[in-house]
Amino acid sequence: MEENPCDQMKHGEEEKHLTTKLGGLKTMPFVISTETFEKVASFGLHANMILYLINEYHMSNAMGANVLFLWSAISNFMPILGAFLSDSFLGRFRVIALGSFVSLLGMSLLWLTAALPQARPPQCNGLATESCASPKAAQLALLFSSFALMSTGAGGIRPCALAFGADQLYNPSNPENKRVLQSFFNWYYASVGLSLMVSITVIVYIQDAAGWVIGFGVPAGLMFLSTVMFLLGSPLYIKLMPDKSLFTSFAQVMVAAWHNKHLALPPMESDPGIWYYHKGSKLIAPTQKLRFLNKACMIGNPEKDIDMDGRAINPWNLCTVKQVEELKALIRVLPIWSSGIMIAVSLSQHSFPVLQARVMDRHLIPGGLQIPAGSFGFFAMITLTIWVATYDQIIVPLLSKFTKRSRGFSLKERMGMGLAISCVATAVAAMVENKRRATAIRQGLGDKPHGMVHMSAMWLVPQYSLIGLAEGLNAIGQIEFYYSQFPKSMASIGVALFALGMAVGNLVGSLIVGTVDKLTSKGGKQSWVSNNLNMGHYDYYYWILTILSVINVFYYLICCWDFGSSDNKNKIVWDEEEGNEDELELELELGDHAKGVASPIVFTH
């Protein structure tokens, strides 16, 4: 979750920037290099991991996929916790520093699993995984501990990195401040894009060509450099103190509503004086939707609830109207958010395509360069990048001529199109796998799961490209939609919702794989997700995802109908004018850029 820098800015911060020599452009080499090394290190471990689990730990295909689903789920959830700790207790610098150290420890443990033969089960020369020795509990504990540490470390780095960099450059007295920030954002995204390209190509190639010891050692070394570079810049950084988190505010509203449950709600047209709000706020009475929460801002007894300055004596018993409406805004988007869970399942299908590509012809041209099986995600990344780069500059101007709307497709249209294209992507995956399986059986490879099929792995490119396009439409559309519904102070919540959706999607993906494996292997039958791709029916598995995705599209349409138009006349006017104008401008700037970071390719692997 990308947190908003202005949530922590306090009175006197302008003076701090003016009177100290901390922060500024001199910190950028440390911030950018830290982010670059961390991204290459962490993302370079995901693409090929299914092969490591199957070949070295003798896991079944279904078991390996489930482990990776669960790892991704934890990795997507931990940034929410990291952002809360940063907002409320530790501050960004400490959270990033701790996250970097924990990530380094996790990668070092993973390297040890490859370097120490005792950390893995004995080598197995047989072709069937079932005939190999299973890993011992201690060996699995070491492996899973490395995954848990890497997820925990990522939870500290990812929600804070962009905002921490913006903290170093925020200087409201500089008339060029906005241009400097824009330059930083551009360099940040360029470094992230380059890091991902390197991780999914170079790191995966090293793992294939030089083995797991070097293949895991390089990311661990890069993570060490990332940690050292970040700490070396410590004397130069601006380190803002933590402040109250929005999560705390939401909790206060729920606790206060429960505490005041005995109060009777007044008629709709009641005296605004019974509601608690800060002086100067436009929100002086709550809306009538989700009325049970309105009790959180009802003044039951002014003498016991309000102090001499007009402030709530106990914020856990009485909240402002604004706090109540912020929680309502979050609850209101939850149905549409839930429609993003199924596409998160589709976006997280990394494991099985790698296994398919491994037994296909991966040469770009006959006798030429062979693409590593784990590098085909590059095509999804390229498609997403092209879409993001061309949408505003080329597609929107063309669409505006026909739609008469300055932004082309509406946000809900973009999200819906992404869901529909994800259905096409999984359907294409099913048809390609059906063709691959039929080709393998014709070649007599039915009982030879590692036999090379005379079929180009380029057949996998369309499904990767379609899933990249679906991501560009739905994932980024989700973040922009949340941002359009929330006040600027809640910009970070949109990224948190997306990360949570990815986490739940990975859990659902694990559930689907486990259920399919269990039900289809009953009675001694061959599982659809068998270790032998040629005897299993991975095409049926993809058709199940397609059917569920189609059902989800109709569910999304119902949610949109129930939500109504986002441009309705009753839309809340938030108190955005409160606070320093420069701070609000930075708040909006960072919120806009948080949309790009929210991509699962960029943010939540």
Automatic annotation (TrEMBL):
InterPro entries for the chain: MFS_trans_sf (IPR036259), POT_fam (IPR000109), PTR2_symporter_CS (IPR018456)
Cellular localisation: Membrane
A Gene Ontology term for the protein's cellular component: membrane
The keyword Transmembrane helix appears for this protein: yes
Gene Ontology MF term list: transmembrane transporter activity
Xref: Pfam families: PTR2 (PF00854)
One Gene Ontology term from the biological process aspect of the record: oligopeptide transport
Topology class, membrane: Multi-pass membrane protein
Keywords from the UniProt entry: Membrane, Transmembrane, Transmembrane helix
Transmembrane segments: 67-85, 91-112, 187-206, 212-238, 369-394, 415-432, 491-513, 540-561
Family: Belongs to the major facilitator superfamily. Proton-dependent oligopeptide transporter (POT/PTR) (TC 2.A.17) family.
Protein name (Swiss-Prot/TrEMBL): Protein NRT1/PTR FAMILY 1.1-like
Lineage: Eukaryota, Viridiplantae, Streptophyta, Embryophyta, Tracheophyta
